Amino acid sequence: MNSAIPSRRRPKPRSFTRIVLLISFIILLSRMIFILPAAFEHHQQKKAAPPFAPLSLTDRDSR
């Protein structure tokens, strides 16, 4: 009798999955390295800037 499932099965494509995950990880790391200097500069500017006072109700009503 012939069975519907062939007796010989293909190996799972683990190497393809590893390649995709490796490429994704490399992209993630490169984006992190690319954005870190800008984030650090933004943090330093925000730290050095004086805090802004919120607008009072009288300032909003005068418009």
Blueprint (SSEs and pairs):
Blueprint lengths: L13 H35 L8 H5 L2
Considering the chains and any ligands shown, give keywords for the structure.
single chain; 63 residues; mainly alpha; elongated
Q: What proportion strand?
A: under 5%
How does the helix and strand content classify structurally? mainly alpha
Helix fraction by DSSP (H/I, runs of at least 4): 55-70%
**Head-to-tail CA distance between termini:** 89 Å
Q: SSE string, helix = H, strand = E?
A: HH
Q: Number of helical segments?
A: 2
Give an overview of the whole structure.
It is built from 2 helices and no strands. The chain is mostly helical and 63 residues long. The radius of gyration is 29 Å and the shape is elongated. The mean pLDDT is 81.
Summarize the structure.
The chain is mostly helical and 63 residues long.
